[in-house]
Known about the structure:
This is Urea ABC transporter permease subunit UrtC. It is a multi-pass membrane protein. The chain crosses the membrane at residues 21-42, 48-66, 73-93, 120-145, 152-169, 203-222, 249-269, 289-313, 325-346. InterPro entries: ABC_transp_permease, ABC_transptr_urea_perm_UrtC, LivM-like. GO terms for molecular function: branched-chain amino acid transmembrane transporter activity. There is one protein chain. By secondary structure, this protein is mainly alpha-helical. The protein has 2 domains: 1-37; 41-283, no CATH class. Helix content is 72%, strand content 2%. It has 16 helices and 4 strands. It has helices at 2-40, 43-67, 77-92, 103-106, 122-145, 152-170, 173-176, 197-223, 225-235, 237-242, 247-273, 283-296, 302-321, 326-339, 344-357, 372-382, and strands at 182-183, 188-189, 192-193, 275-276. The strands form 2 sheets. It has a two-stranded antiparallel ribbon. It has a two-stranded antiparallel ribbon with strand order 2-3. It is globular and about 75 Å long.
Amino acid sequence: xxxxxxxxxDAAQRSKRKFMIEAASIIxxxxxxxxxxxxxxxxxxxxxxxxxxxxxxVALGIDLxxxxxGLLSLGHGIFFALGGYGLAMYLNLQxxxxxxxxxxxxxxxxxxxxxxxxxxxxxxxxxxxxxxxxIVAALLGYLIFRNRIRGVYFSILTQAALLVFFxxxxxxxxxxxxxxxxxxxxxxxxxxLASSPPVQRGFYITTVISLVLVYLLCRxxxxxxxxxxxxxxxxxxxxxxxxxxxxxxxxxxxxAISGAIAGIAGALYTVQTGIITPNAMDVxxxxxxVIWVAVGGRATLVGAILGTLLVRLAQTTLSEQLPEIWLFFxxxxxxxxxxxxxxxxxxGIKDLQTFLKGRRKLSTYPxxxxxxxxxxxxxxxxx
Length: 383
């Protein structure tokens, strides 16, 4: 018993050291992105990279629920758009006392709707960007998970919810300008134009910091007992119920966290794009978010970031150089990943390492191969 306790303590210490090393590495890379690139890249390219990094944030949220929990959401555009609209509403209210955003006059609105009034405050706006998408995700998740709906039926329901929100936002001309959306590049923040290079550099640095914090949050959530429970739900939910846990509340929790992460990503993407419209809730865009994670590698977190950057950079480069045929290259990339690298780029690298080491691959928790207890037990069995 004492030996087992010491072994578990050593494993925990090694896991903690590994987490610290990984966190230091991520922070080091973030410093390069946040301090060096703004000095090298022109304003347009820096703004473009900022959008890609903000999309990597939402990819982390999807990897958290899909890669680790087995919940394939095709409706994350809802939470992404809610975050974008929240920050856009704040920017549109940066006007002299008594004035309303311009579009209200087009529809004969003379008084600011009650929904807008909390967004006069920046702290309230920042909280709303995270809390509102989290609440919507929690309510939607509870309605689905309490009926034990999962798998493809869950994916279909999230996509159906996406269509409902898309049509609803399209029809709200008097509140959020309907299909025209809300502009942010012509607004001011702290007295400066939001689209000016200095402000955009500030948004870019904020995006880099947010990406690091969200990554560390996801890594922390998936490296402890909660992470093991989420993977257990993914692999065998029925057995988890038999052990005395109620998977419903854990799935609601992780879905709400993922929704909040998408809200943060939507807000940062909006201010670096210059506009938010209901097209952020387009079905194809939500499916593309899933593709980024699939390309990089599920249940790796780093793969979600890598996949997003690779796909978006490839889209940008090919559309600039070969605008007529770049979609064919994009399709070929996705087909190659599905047929040749079904576990994504990082998954393929891990499979190759396993093959070269002559070990049998374990199709379960991603960190199991690196677990010190598992490695020690394997060595004892081999000896």
